[in-house]
Amino acid sequence: MAEAYIVESLRTAGGRRKGALAGVHPADLGAAVLNALVDRTGVDPAAIEDVIVGCVSQVGEQAFAFGRNIVLASRLPDSVPAVTIDRQCGSSQQALHFAAQAVMSGTQDIVIAAGAESMTRVPMGSNIALHAQAGIGEGPWPRSIKNRYGVAEFSQFYGAQAIADKYGFTREMMDEYALGSHRKAAAAIKAGAFTEEIVPIETLEGVFAQDEGVRPDSSLEAMAQVKTIAEGGTITAANASQISDGASGAMVVSEAALKRFNLTPIARIVGLTVTAGDPVIMLEEPIPATRKALARAGIKLEDIDLFEVNEAFASVPMAWLKTLGADPAKLNVNGGAIALGHPLGASGTKLMSTLLHALKARGGRYGLQTMCEGGGIANVTIVERL
């Protein structure tokens, strides 16, 4: 099978809800990333054969062929097609998988995988809210599904709490993990670790190019004052990912495209895995998915130099670490979504951008990225830095 290579992977800085990116249309956020990918690589934009965009809340400004609208808002010619996909939080990671599979199959040579989500302008759950307002139908889960699993609805908050309870994680333990995320992110910003991966965005207030959700002065005492999401629970906004606005993307090419455009790859795709399991606890699936991905790639856990495990909630990467016995010093070395934000559909290629640039900075070879997704699904991507 042919190889697939990443020649560039970029992201915007994460904007807080109602923060610096609140005045930017989500299609313009995605367009800025597409433009930057073309500028950085020097690829003829007309040679791009498809753009695959991940987005979760495909309603309002993110509706009506959102991926195509991102292309039309960019400097790419209108001959470049696009499609929008939803695999929940893993949407743009799945976009990367689809892009790589297109290249590996030999059907396309240059594909951009991207994601964009403005959680300020299109709040999480907006698409479900439309059903509630209409007052008709049963919503996304018919009675057949609810009866099968014995639930009234599926909740990521329930899943996060169930994981915390299952693994014995106290609120203090999760707060401590969350504080570590902020400290690592603050140190990364201070060291300029994100400079090469961030696409500056023009806003009415000026150029936005630094993640604004990081709290370098946070403390366990301050976190302890945050109310729990559910009464009697231990999950709080302080030990969960931040609502965020942002976009990201990666250009995936074939060996033929490398030669044609004289490109230098930054990584080779080693493994693409997706698995599914319990939709109720939901967020535990990265654990078996990682095991399967490593087995398929023929790589041992200890051979991976860096891990990016999405911090949807602190309990998720904590359970992943505890079960697999991975080295915590290799995990989310520049902080994670608790500090940097989780712009839903954009988070997949966002994490890949951070992973690849961190591997370069540390001289690492292999990187593994995974994240929990709604419905009990998880994607795993393994890359080799070149």
From TrEMBL:
CDD domains listed in its UniProt record: thiolase
Gene3D superfamilies for this protein: 3.40.47.10
Highest taxon, organism lineage: Bacteria
Record's keyword terms, sorted: Acyltransferase, Transferase
Pfam families: Thiolase_C, Thiolase_N
SUPFAM superfamilies for this protein: Thiolase-like
Residue stretches making up the Thiolase C-terminal domain: 263-385
Domain Thiolase N-terminal: 5-255
InterPro entries named in the record: Thiolase, Thiolase-like, Thiolase_C, Thiolase_CS, Thiolase_N
Homology family: Belongs to the thiolase-like superfamily. Thiolase family.
Cited NCBIfam families: AcCoA-C-Actrans, PRK06504.1
Protein name: Acetyl-CoA C-acetyltransferase
Organism: Sphingomonas oligophenolica
Top-level taxonomy: Bacteria, Pseudomonadati, Pseudomonadota, Alphaproteobacteria, Sphingomonadales
